[in-house]
């Protein structure tokens, strides 16, 4: 069986405060079709929620899911992406996007985002992707 290589790139979205920053832990991930993939971001400051988006070429970013830091409540896109889940470690301030059974069509630019608490609530600032 021929396995295709996937290139999953992801970038960051920075919060409005200089103390609220989220960064990716790898610039790109290569995986074989059918494998499970974890994309990770770490953040500083206080987060209300952490978000994941994807962007295919010549299209706008699509919301995938978010997790609320205080309650760990997850909101998924409608309709949801069934092979995606998220995990948050509040101690290490790391948020993961987990993709099961990767497909070639999953190749895209993935964004992690932080929605800060306080005056920054409701604001997400995009930074140029990698």
UniProtKB/TrEMBL annotation:
GO cellular component terms, A-Z: T cell receptor complex
GO biological process, one term: adaptive immune response
Keywords, in A-Z order: Adaptive immunity, Immunity, Immunoglobulin domain, Receptor, Signal, T cell receptor
Endpoints of the signal sequence: 1-18
InterPro entries in alphabetical order: Ig-like_dom, Ig-like_dom_sf, Ig-like_fold, Ig_sub, Ig_V-set, TCR_variable_region
Domain Ig-like intervals: 19-112
PROSITE patterns: IG_LIKE
Name under which the protein is recorded: Ig-like domain-containing protein
Organism per entry: Anguilla anguilla
Taxonomic lineage of the native organism: Eukaryota, Metazoa, Chordata, Craniata, Vertebrata
